[in-house]
Design brief:
Radius of gyration: 20 Å
Strand order of the largest sheet: 1-2
Strand content: 5-15%
Number of strands: 4
Shape: globular
Helix content: 55-70%
Amino acid sequence: MHSTIKKKLSRIVAILLFALTSIVLMSPKISSAAALSSATETAGNDSNSSGYTLTLTEYQMPDGQQFTLIALGNADQNTGEFDDLEFDFDDDDLTSIADPIEPFNRAMFVFNDKLYFWVLKPTAGFYGRAVPEKGRIAVRRFFTNIATPIRLVNALLQLKFKYAGTELARFGINTTVGLLGFRDPARDKWNIYLHKEDFGQSIGHYGVGPGFYITWPILGPSSLRDTFGLIGDFLLNPASYIFAERSLTGVGVWSYDKVNSTSLDPTLYEDLTKNAIDPYLFIRDAYHQHREQLIKE
């Protein structure tokens, strides 16, 4: 089984290196496109009084975590419940991530967007109508419980011993009292919440910057740092070993997890992008800001 894991890991690394090499070879065209994009974004920021404004939107994740998205939007749009609120934020909150391979990223964004609307959303909708919500929530809790080693190990790597203890407690309670994680008594009865920690955060915790932005097909938004972080998470996820010898089974289980999660938040992607002037830029900046916030925590 270990040799199988090594082979799969080597394939993943080879694919990543091939993709990054292709990106480097594309650099002349990419640089000119990135320069044009940068000029366009600067013009948008400078014309703040002519129809553009910073839109701040707060979201709460199913695990209880909250985060704020800051993106350039149209001043004429109705910001709803945040119209009368004032937000204080540091200049660091407005930092952007480098995007030298924007043509490639935009192509992958369009691919993922079509995949969502043509495949994932219809499948999740059918699945959501067929399976009761309580059952789908239980499935999500099960997958979250399985992924405990990712959060536990990375909490230790970042010297967040309190978070590590929390993950141990949650795993012990939910695996036993919670029936293998299908229930979450740790949160519901003892108010013990999980903390999202992954290898990309651990790398960033020790001062490694995000590098540049990457949109991967199917996997979605990422960065150079978080792309390599995915490898660490893959090795820490028990599901990677459980299904290592049966690739199709592993892909099927991973796909089922995504369909199940989407069925519980069927409009999240559309809510995030429907009012954005440029959905690609919104997702890029929102992803970067959210990741940087997680690292600061």
